[in-house]
Prior knowledge:
Layout: H1 2-20, E1 27-31, E2 37-40, E3 50-52, H2 70-79, H3 88-103, E4 108-110, E5 116-118, H4 121-138
Amino acid sequence: MKAYLSLIFFLAYLLTASIATAAPEKVYKWTDKKGITHYGQRPPANTQTEVIKPQTGHSDPVTYAPAPGATQAADKKTESSEKPLLDQERCTNARKNLETLKTYARIKMKGDDGEYRYLTPDEQKQKLDEAAKAAEESCE
């Protein structure tokens, strides 16, 4: 029985190790003489190629711009008792980001240079405040 469990754990380890190394670090893109675009892990000889760095499932960071009409709605709110205009999509994004920022200790975001990096605790606090403000403005 112990040998059977050891075998299962070993096979699981090999499977996860092979999946982690399966994605190539570089992908080459080139166009052949017929005008067909190709992608591959190795570039062909004597052909001009472009190196493409594959993305690993991370989305671009969300920036919280004021909701359309939010400033106008805020002005109207001070003038009268009308409710501000709400943006459902912005509300949903803000709530998802709030949950992520509260749940995970390390958050990875794409920087201005296109490389991913972890946010510092101060940056996480700032993003948390921005998401809370966006949720407050956009959600019912």
